[in-house]
Amino acid sequence: MAELNLFRFTPGDSALHRMDPRFKLAGLILISLTAGLADGWSGVALVTLFLAWTFRRSRLPRTTLLRELRRFVWLFAFILAARSFGHPEGEAGFWGFSRAGFAAGLLFDWRLMAVLAAALLLAATTPLTELRNGLLWFLHPLPWLPAARIGTMFSLTFALVPLLFEQAEAVREAQIARSIESVKNPLRRLTSLAWPVLRETFLRADELILAMEARCYTEQRSRPVFRSAAADRLSLGLMLALMVLVAACRMLGV
Questions:
Q1: Which DSSP state fits 178?
Q2: Which of 27, 75, 176, 242 shows a CA-CA span of 20 to 30 A to 168?
Q3: Which residues are registered as beta bridge partners of 97?
Q4: Residue whose C-alpha is closest to residue 91's, from 76, 102, 105
Q5: How many CB atoms lie under 10 A from the CB of residue 96?
Q6: What pTM was estimated for this model as a whole?
């Protein structure tokens, strides 16, 4: 099976694991906004230091963050290349390469990496049920949105997508065992992989629907009870202070 652990919960007993999911979702929004405000190296460095401190508090394995972020290496490389060549600022060198564009690409990749790292910390320290309950808490005051339905779709998506990747990897390994890799027609190879995966996807969806109906699933459910601590409010205050500090660095042009 595929070793797909992208944004998957890792059990633990750290302060970040015990944090109220509502505050963690609000913190992810604040960190994303702060990374967007950081248009200089000092601002991004402040965000990185805060995330490093948060990662240490989470007590996750040290290789977890790097292992998950490496899946986005091609995205980072594409952004860096797109910014480096043909950048409007600065003189273009060999093949249109621009030092200003290269620096802008590095900065953008760093900001994007910070947002992805924050999302990884949220998913790795929060069970899927708590994430859904926190999302429902934010959506319930909005009368025009079906909060329960959106929460169910959110939880099912995060629960089933890794299973689909595992199924695709299992099909690929089975086809390699049957020498399907020797087929030179790329369309036939793609079809032979896509059809079993799609078939298994629809079968799992039907099984899930039957299981939910058998358990009398309904959107009219009791709302979860949250208990926040002083440490949660302090952590949110630190993220607000970080946002103000980064905004000040941007205004000063640091």
A1: T
A2: 75
A3: 85
A4: 102
A5: 11
A6: 0.77
